[in-house]
Design a protein that fits this description.
Blueprint (H helix, E strand, L loop, with lengths): L14 E5 L9 H15 L3 E7 L10 E4 L1 E3 L7 E3 L6 H8 L3 E4 L4 H13 L3 E4 L15 H16 L4 E4 L2 H9 L6 E3 L16 H6 L6 E6 L8 H11 L6 E6 L5 H10 L6 E5 L3 H10 L2 E4 L8 H8 L4 E4 L14 E4 L2 H13 L1 H14 L5 H18 L7 H4 L4
Parallel strand pairs: 1-2, 1-6, 2-3, 6-7, 7-8, 8-9, 10-11, 10-13, 11-12, 13-14, 14-15
Antiparallel strand pairs: 4-5
Helix pairs in contact: 1-13, 7-11
Length: about 400
């Protein structure tokens, strides 16, 4: 798809409606993506309105519309919104929305699609998740569910005007599935300044890690699909040759108790620290204090934590996954491996060669600039205006049509 070049400084500001099945205080990559883009879009003068589930601890926020929700039976902390509102049509009309951007094909996403159709608005969908890989959260009929979800995703995508993919891998997957609508690759970015000047000693002081011990860091939800058990197995192997390190696992999730038990069974628990949930500022300090970042998930559509690790000048050892080549350059800012022995060997190599680890970390920091959130927000705006212009028979088309070069 050929994109027009637009002068964003001359275009009218947009009113953007975001529909999502998860939002803060829930923590996830989807929520991070929404929040990052929202901050940059608002900084550029656009209005962003969030339509999201309610949570018991959620506080009222400006421009955030909450929906009655029920707790998910298989995923603690996650709530299913009930996408029913008798005032939504009035609200959408009153806000004078120009674009509806959904971040789920399900409950709130379907509601957003209904509103887009009712008001003739462009509908965009960010395909964050390979939902068919998460059927273990569905209590019954998991094999059937994967097939149903694939078809639902395809049909939903073909109802949209534009699909946003977080990686080229996901774009190819979407198009191979039978989706005929245009797809643009726009990953979630970072405010790189957030990862500068943080206290490198906080993590050691907080958890009593000795100065001579290296810190091997993992950040992510403690869930089955993150494959953290693989990392724990690797640490068991690593301890046969090295002992002066700590594995720090940052995050919470359904597998936390099981992973702690696994460490005790292997008698390696004294080398593994589980931080539990941390604040955003504490998370930044965790990144600042790490020496090597490890990652073993095979279900990522982008892997935001990898970009965060790069922005924090850490070399990465990651298990091969479909989108990994888009984030890491093997041998330059990290290592991409295909097996347990190789995973352990590369960690051992970085522990033994501090100068090379530091050089790779510096390279990682430089390469992280490609994921600068302000740059990616401007790319998203280009797509918004292009889609708005392409949308036929709508009064909103004049917002972009006369400005295209």
């Amino acid at each position: 798809m050929r994109m027009f070049e637009l002068d964003l400084n001359t275009l009218p500001k947009l009113n953007i409606g975001i529909f999502t099945d998860s939002y803060r205080p829930y923590i996830s990559g989807v929520v991070r993506s929404i929040e990052t883009f929202r901050q940059d879009l608002e900084r550029l003068g656009h209005n962003v309105y969030i339509f999201a589930p309610d949570y018991p601890e959620a506080k009222p926020e400006k421009n955030v519309f909450r929906y009655l929700s029920l707790p998910a039976p298989t995923q603690p902390g996650f709530f299913f919104p009930i996408p029913i509102s008798f005032r939504l049509s009035f609200t959408v009309n009153n806000l004078k929305l120009d674009i509806i951007h959904v971040h789920t094909p399900f409950l709130m996403g379907s509601l957003g699609a209904v509103m887009a159709r009712r008001f003739g608005l462009p509908l965009l969908f960010t395909y964050h998740t390979l939902y068919q890989n998460y059927t273990h959260y569905i209590p019954m009929g998991r094999s059937i569910s994967a097939h149903i979800i694939k078809n639902w995703n395809k049909n939903f995508c073909n109802r949209c005007d534009m699909i946003i993919a977080p990686s080229l891998f996901v774009k190819n997957l979407i198009q191979d599935s039978g989706v005929t609508k245009p797809v643009q690759v726009i990953p979630t970015g970072l405010n790189l300044d957030d990862y500068c000047g943080k206290d490198k000693h906080w993590l050691r002081q907080r958890y009593g890690i000795a100065p001579e011990e290296k810190i091997i860091l993992h950040v992510g939800r403690l869930a089955k699909e993150k494959n953290i058990g693989f990392i724990i197995d690797a640490i068991e192997q690593l301890l046969k040759s090295h002992s002066c390190f700590k594995l720090v696992i940052v995050g919470t999730g359904t597998e936390e108790d099981e992973l702690k038990s696994l460490c005790k069974q292997k008698n390696i628990d004294r080398h593994v620290i589980f931080t539990g949930q941390v604040t955003h500022e504490e998370l930044l300090k965790c990144y600042a204090g790490g020496d090597i970042f490890v990652f073993a998930s095979r279900s990522e559509t982008q892997g935001i934590v990898l970009i965060e690790a790069k922005a924090s000048s850490m070399p990465i050892v990651a298990l091969q996954a479909p989108c990994m080549d888009e984030i890491l350059t093997d041998g330059e800012d990290g290592f991409i491996v295909k097996s347990m022995p190789a995973f352990v060997q590369k960690i051992r190599f970085l522990l033994d060669h501090e100068d090379i680890a530091q050089k790779m970390g510096n390279t990682a920091r430089v390469k992280a600039a490609a994921f600068s959130s302000p740059l990616l927000a401007q790319k998203l705006l280009q797509v918004y205006y292009y889609t708005l212009w392409q949308k036929k028979d709508t009064p909103h088309r004049k917002k972009a049509g006369s400005i295209i070069k």
